[in-house]
Amino acid sequence: MITLGVPLPMRTSEKPTGRVPVNADRQMSAGTLSGPASRKLPVPPRERKPALAALAILLILGGALATTLLVLRSGDRVSAIGIVRQIGAGQPFTAAVMKEVQIADTGIGYVAWADRARVAENFARVTIIPGTLLTREMVVSASRELGPGKAQVGLSLKPGQSPGTLERGDRVQIVYVPSRGGNSTAQSRVLAESALVDQVGTPGSSGSTGRVTVIVDSSISPTVVAYASSGEIALAELPGAR
């Protein structure tokens, strides 16, 4: 008797239904890379430059040496001529207007104190105010104010006829001022536009301001003397004309 068996079911392999991402293989392969692409490039060692280092050291040493020389030189002192009183242009230097001043040796051509005797034989090229250190450019051997064609005139002025601040070296106008008891038709007029004050005296016991010596052109000196003798002269200071 032949027995027919029940047919056994056939086994089939099951495949996954989900799709594998396209980049999955790339990601997996990238994660397993161990070649040169996955390594950092080596950094070359720093190259030492001895020439630049030596130059930097030389610059530092040079700066330190220059600073030291400046400090040492600032301690060097020289004797120069300082002016203590105002000197007008064209006036002579005297011992009374000069004093010794100790200054740092800066290389400027100040006149040395040892040359004061030679300076006293010369004249001021420009008006020099007190506190000035004398340089050779301020000194001239000949004076235009005391040269030919000039005259020194002494005036004895009363209070009000001259500014109280008048000093040697100032520039003044010499003005004729007619007296009240004189010619009533006479008018004031300027005799000298810019006269140089050579000397200023101290007030006397008579109340006058002392003698004031001015330098004028010799052509007008007789007129100035005549009016000064009668007290008809006044001086007007010109500060801007120094």
Give the helix/strand layout.
Layout (H helix, E strand, L loop, with lengths): L23 H8 L18 H25 L2 E7 L14 E7 L11 H4 L3 E2 L14 E2 L9 E7 L14 E6 L12 E12 L10 E7 L3 H9 L3 E5 L5
Antiparallel strand pairs: 1-2, 3-4, 5-8, 6-7, 6-9, 7-8
Walkthrough of the structure:
The longest helix is centred in the first third of the chain and has 25 residues, at 50-74. The chain has helices spanning 24-31, 50-74, 116-119, 221-229, and strands at residues 77-83, 98-104, 123-124, 139-140, 150-156, 171-176, 189-200, 211-217, 233-237. With 242 residues, the protein is α+β, with helices and mostly antiparallel strands. It is elongated. The model is unreliable at 27-31 (pLDDT under 50). Among the domains are: 77-140, Antifreeze-like/N-acetylneuraminic acid synthase C-terminal domain (Type Iii Antifreeze Protein Isoform Hplc 12, Alpha-Beta Complex), CATH 3.90.1210; 150-241, no CATH class. It has a five-stranded antiparallel beta sheet with strand order 5-8-7-6-9.
Report the helical percentage.
Answer: 10-25%
By DSSP (H or I, 4+ residues per run), the number of helices equals 4
* Estimated radius of gyration: 51 Å
Run of helices and strands: HHEEHEEEEEEHE
For the residues shown, what is the average pLDDT? 76
Terminal Cα span? 162 Å
Strand order in the largest sheet: 5-8-7-6-9
Question: Spans with pLDDT under 50 lasting ≥5 residues?
Answer: 27-31
Keywords: Membrane, Transmembrane, Transmembrane helix
Protein name: SAF domain-containing protein
